Amino acid sequence: METPDFKRGFRGYDSDAVDQAWAENERQLSEANAANKELRLQINSLREQNQEWENRLKYYEQIEKDLRDALVSAQRIANQVKDDASKQAEELMQSARIESETILSEAARLSELKEQEADSLLIEKRMEIVQLEEQIQALAEQKSELQILVEQAMHYLDMIKDLIK
Q1: Hey, which end of the chain has fewer CB within 10 Å, N or C?
Q2: Which phi and psi (to 5°) does residue 12 adopt?
Q3: Rounded CA separation 130/63 (Å)
Q4: 85-112 per-residue burial string, b: 16 or more CB within 10 A, e: under 16
Q5: 9 pLDDT exceeds 90?
Q6: In terms of DSSP bridges, do strands 12-13 and 8-9 run parallel, antiparallel, or are they unpaired?
Q7: pLDDT tens digits, residue range 18-38?
Q8: pLDDT tens, position by position, 51-70
């Protein structure tokens, strides 16, 4: 607003100029009030939008926080599952080692036992062979003695026969 420059008239300022300035000031004031009202509405609208954006931002920040928490939790669970699986695998490997050592030990024991049984059976069979060889030898000697006796008996029979004739 400009400061009006009034001309002086009879008894002060020119009343038409003052009225005209007054009307112009009212019009400008009315326009300024309307513009002020429009600006206040825009400010209120912007404040509402700002509040809405702040609420959205808080919502997205909460989602981001929840996602980070979920990711950290998933990572923690994955690490726990991995650790548990490693422990379980190690326990299974240890159990398998112990079982294989037990099986090998039992197999070695059974093998040694079977070897001892085979050695005992072999010794027993060798002793039987020796006994059979001794019996064969004794029978051979008896045969020889019987042959001699048969020959002697035949010789005596021949002699008896000759005597009888």
Answers
A1: C
A2: 115, -145
A3: 97
A4: eeeeeeeeeeeeeeeeeeeeeeeeeeee
A5: no
A6: antiparallel
A7: 778 888 889 999 999 999 999
A8: 999 999 999 999 999 999 99
